[in-house]
Amino acid sequence: MVDFTSRGLNNKKTNMEGKTATYEDLLRKSEQGLKLKPYEEIKDQFTGWLQYHQVNDMLKQDKRKMGFEDKKSKFNIEIIEGKNKTLSKLYDILLEWHTKDEEVKEAMIKWAIDFGYNIEFEKWLKLWNRDIKFTACTSLRENVWKMLYRWYLTPAKLAKIYRSENKTCWKCGEGEGDLYHMWWQCSKVKVFGKQFIMNLKSF
């Protein structure tokens, strides 16, 4: 969606510097939605009627293709209207977008490949937003996060880092030691897991 508070429109007049106006400067809310203000009210923003109608056509195209968000975006508040440390704020916002979207997306894809089927996004949201809070133990939560984001340095990952050909599992010495093998497929892990479940049932 277009943030009508920050969409820049560069209007140049003869013998004058370029003047940038946003939709917020040019539009007015009505019962029918956002509409361009009357020409007489904003004529100082334009070279004449022709440019006014060009902007009106642009408005119609944006409404049809993308729609409008009438609330100010974080980008508009922090960057456009912010007065201090613009570069740092921009970097922080971009970093936040990248880490949230890309790391989560990458982890989801890799787990889906390991399991052999897609996991519904709603289940991921439930896991991240609620299930992670099942304990107040900080160290246990840390281990869960490490598992979700596949943080553990497995033989396969270390072989890639140090350019080694040895990717073998440290425990069984048989399969390739990627994350899924080390935690679920390794024969020694399976024996330990079964014994652990039996001990739990005995309580």
3D architecture notes:
- This protein is 55% helix and 10% strand.
- It has 203 residues and is mainly alpha-helical.
- Strands 1-6 form a two-stranded parallel sheet. A two-stranded antiparallel ribbon has the order 2-3.
- The protein starts with a strand and ends with a helix.
- It has ten helices and six strands, in the order E-E-E-H-E-E-H-H-E-H-H-H-H-H-H-H.
- The protein has three domains: 72 residues, no CATH class; 61 residues; 50 residues, no CATH class.
- It is elongated and about 80 Å long.
- It comes from Podarcis lilfordi (Lilford's wall lizard).
- This is Reverse transcriptase zinc-binding domain-containing protein.
How many H/I helical runs?
10
General shape: elongated
Contiguous runs where pLDDT drops below 50 for at least 5 residues: 1-8, 10-18
Rounded to the nearest angstrom, the radius of gyration is 28 Å
For the largest beta-sheet, the strand count, sense and barrel status come to: 2 strands, parallel
How are helices and strands ordered from N to C? Answer: EEEHEEHHEHHHHHHH
Would you report the number of β strands? Answer: 6
Q: Helicity, in percent?
A: 40-55%
Mean pLDDT: 76
Would you tell me the structural class of the helices and strands?
mainly alpha
Strand content: 5-15%
Enumerate the strands of the largest sheet in spatial order, edge to edge or round the barrel: 1-6
How many domains, as an integer?
3
Distance between the termini: 56 Å
Please give a handful of descriptors for the protein shown.
203 residues; mainly alpha; two-stranded parallel ribbon; two-stranded antiparallel sheet; disordered N terminus
